[in-house]
Specification:
single chain, eight-stranded parallel β-barrel, about 20% strand, 12 strands, about 280 residues, TIM Barrel, four-stranded antiparallel sheet
């Protein structure tokens, strides 16, 4: 199966998009997931999501022969006022060419407000011909989609064609403190997951850290072979936030300095090769 392979700009936190796009193209990938994630990438404000910046990014994509298939815009979708904020981000992502916009869902205690908000946002997504893909979290805090089974149940309850799942294998390990394995858990969402985040993780005394694909504790040989055998190809995005660690309580810790560009380059190129080889099995 010809699964689209993307690289998330989250790997290049601390570098501008021009540098990230150049490196992604160099790694042999022509699809990109542009990441604007609070606490995980360089700070930004909502004012950034305007026509001028959309035009600048589109020009950069063209210069590097890339296409933006996905846009990461993780927020708590139960927050007050978030519907207007997220609609603007969706419109911005659409201008870049994105089909998918990735977000968190909501804390468990805020499900009622989330359900109201996602209905409104689902209608907007339909009008834009985009898909909102909700991601299972990694921070260890009770969520309305802590793992695969509740995520699948949530999508069934929402019942919107344009609201689906982005399953993140690496997030599951820290979120559930390795009590659940992603190799089996993701199977709950195979009917409603239309986008996957592939990140590999390992654990030491300081918590979880991210590695090149195939060097952590997740059996991606098995997973990618299964994804390649699905009846419909699903996008596989390499989201490897090397600047981030998760403490033993699963909370994120962002290093004060960016990761050396040569290190990022080697990790991403080897990860791309691993994924392409595994998908071809």
């Amino acid at each position: 199966m010809n699964n689209p392979i993307l690289i998330s700009t989250a790997a290049y936190d601390g570098y501008d998009l021009a540098t990230a796009f150049k490196e992604i193209s160099r790694a042999g990938v022509d699809l990109v997931e542009i990441a604007f994630i609070e606490g995980y990438t360089d700070p930004f404000t909502e004012d950034y999501f305007n026509d001028d910046n959309a035009a600048k990014i589109t020009t950069l994509l063209t210069e590097h022969n890339l296409k933006c298939l996905s846009f990461s815009s993780h927020v708590d979708l139960s927050r007050d006022g978030i519907v207007a904020v997220f609609k603007n981000r969706m419109a911005f992502a659409k201008k870049l060419g994105a089909k998918y916009i990735v977000s968190n869902a909501a804390p468990l205690q805020n499900k009622k407000q989330f359900m109201q908000n996602i209905k409104a946002l689902g209608q907007t997504a339909t009008g834009l011909k985009m898909v909102i893909v909700l991601e299972n979290p990694g921070d260890g805090k009770a969520n309305i989609m802590d793992s695969g089974e509740p995520a699948a149940n949530l999508i069934e309850e929402i019942d919107y064609e344009n609201v689906k799942i982005n399953y993140d294998f690496g997030n599951l390990l820290s979120h559930c403190f390795e009590k659940i394995r992603p190799e089996e858990d993701y199977k709950f969402v195979r009917d409603c997951a239309v986008h996957y985040h592939v990140k590999d993780v390992a654990f030491d005394d300081s918590g979880w850290y991210f590695t090149e694909i195939g060097k952590g504790t997740i059996d991606y040989q098995k997973i990618l072979k299964e994804l390649a055998g699905l009846s419909e190809p699903v996008p596989i995005s390499l989201e490897i936030p090397l600047r981030i660690r998760r403490a033993p309580d699963a909370s994120p810790r962002r290093a004060s300095l960016p990761v050396d560009l040569e290190e990022i380059r080697q990790v991403m190129e080897r990860s791309v090769n691993f994924v392409k080889t595994a998908l071809a099995i």
